[in-house]
Write a structure and sequence with these properties.
104 residues; alpha+beta; 5-stranded antiparallel beta sheet; 3 helices
Length: 104
């Protein structure tokens, strides 16, 4: 195999740096609706992410990324719920970079 062998890596288009804000980022109603629809948030608005500790969840609420698909800064939790989210590795998000379906 050549030096360019990537068989052990996830296929992604972008590596997006995760940034930290001073305060917890507020979620928009659209994001909350998406999270509820996907089962990541209960009816009371509490996040329910399997395999994510309360300490990590608190940290995730302060993080954001400059989304290359949406062309805007978004809360990390919104990125985490996105179908383009591939993985979080060493302070970066691996993003598939596919176009997102339009909102209805």
């Amino acid at each position: 195999m050549s030096d360019g062998d990537t068989s052990g890596e996830l296929e992604h288009k972008y590596e997006v740096e995760i940034k930290t804000a001073e305060k917890v980022q507020r979620m928009t109603e659209d994001v909350k609706a998406e999270l509820k629809a996907s089962g990541m948030m209960d009816a009371k608005g509490k996040l329910k992410l399997k395999g994510v500790s309360a300490k990590m969840l608190k940290r995730m609420k302060q993080e954001y990324v400059d989304c290359p698909v949406l062309g805007d800064g978004i809360q990390f939790i919104q990125c985490f719920a996105c179908p383009n989210f591939q993985s979080r590795v060493q302070g970066k998000v691996l993003c598939k970079g596919h176009d997102l379906p339009p909102k209805t």
